Amino acid sequence: MRLMRILVTAVFLCAPAFAFADAIKLIVPTAPGGGTDAYFRVLAKGAEAFLKEPLVIINVPGAGGTIGMAQMVRAAPDGQTLAAVWLGPVTVSPNTMKVPYTPNDYVPIIQLTSAPYVLCVHPEFPATDGKTFIEELRRNPDKYTYGDDGAGGPGQLATERIFRAMNVHARDIPFKGAGETLVSFLGHHIDIYVGSVPPVLQHAQAGTAKCVLLTSAERIAALPSASSLRDLGIPDEELILWRAVIAPKGTPPAKIAELEALFEKAANAPATKKFLDDAGEQLLIRKGPALRQYIDKEYEAVGKLAKALNLSPQ
């Protein structure tokens, strides 16, 4: 009986290779279960309503998303193999580690979401908004510690981009992600939480965390008291969590246009929009030359910042 179960499982696991041979394959370069994976699974389900063939999610985690990216750029440019990405493997990791691709090896199809990182402090911290937070850091250089998603991670780079623009300093304590950072913050082992909004939102609402500054140019409804970079006068220093779909270089323009329309419809489906609302994120559509320009500008800015922080690949 045990052998029979193993054989049945083996057949089941092998079946997709044949059943989905003609499917659109969406490589998600992260492990299953995270926010990015969850979003693209909801998006894929919405997209299937407009497709004749299935859309299959393939998780390829590792090396900050760069393994999945590399697999996508090597795929045939026929529109059947795409990558569902966030800023990490696109504009951050290529500036902090050696990767087997360049910005010229892929074509951006469509950006779908926008979400800032947030800086939160303890209730007793002597600041009420972004301006008073920056003033406190300026009065006390290197007194305070902040936790983030690791050396060279988007959270650290987003924070240091702000701090350098405002000429203030705090000590970086790297963690593996927002969840680990939050635990240390709530335990008062660090002074400042840096991470995505959802993990800390309930604590902000309960008053056990005071979220004072966003890494985005604009404010968000989920944290109405948190200042934006526009409030500080530095909107161009924005570095946020965004998600997009990209294709291998050489994918025909007509196919890119077809995929762009498909994912825009899926992004506007009620279930997909509800996912973003529940996560405190925003729907943001950017495509064509505007998306290419946005990525190239961020890539250049992150590259300069990585060099300043001695994070560039050797």
Describe the structure.
The chain has 314 residues and is an alpha/beta fold. It has two domains: 20-115 and 240-308, Bordetella uptake gene, domain 1 (D-Maltodextrin-Binding Protein, domain 2, 3-Layer(aba) Sandwich); 119-237, 3-Layer(aba) Sandwich (D-Maltodextrin-Binding Protein, domain 2), CATH 3.40.190.10. It contains twelve helices and eleven strands. The strands form two sheets. A six-stranded mixed β-sheet has the order 2-1-3-10-4-11, sandwiched between helices. A five-stranded mixed β-sheet has the order 7-6-8-5-9, with helices on both faces. Strand 1, helix 2 (35-47) and strand 2 (55-59) form a beta-alpha-beta unit. Mean pLDDT is 91; it is low at 1-20.
Question: What labels would you give this structure?
Answer:
314 residues, 20% strand, five-stranded mixed sheet, alpha/beta, 2 domains, disordered N terminus, D-Maltodextrin-Binding Protein, domain 2
How far apart lie the N and C ends? 55 Å
Number of helices: 12
The CATH homologous superfamily of the largest domain is called Bordetella uptake gene, domain 1
Q: How many independent structural domains?
A: 2
CATH structural class of the largest domain = Alpha Beta
Total strands: 11
String of helices and strands: HEHEHEHEEHEHEHEHEHEHHEH
In the CATH hierarchy, the architecture of the largest domain is: 3-Layer(aba) Sandwich
Alpha-beta content class: alpha/beta
Looking at CATH, which topology of the largest domain would you report?
D-Maltodextrin-Binding Protein, domain 2
Enumerate the spans where pLDDT stays under 50 for 5 or more consecutive residues: 1-20
Shape: globular
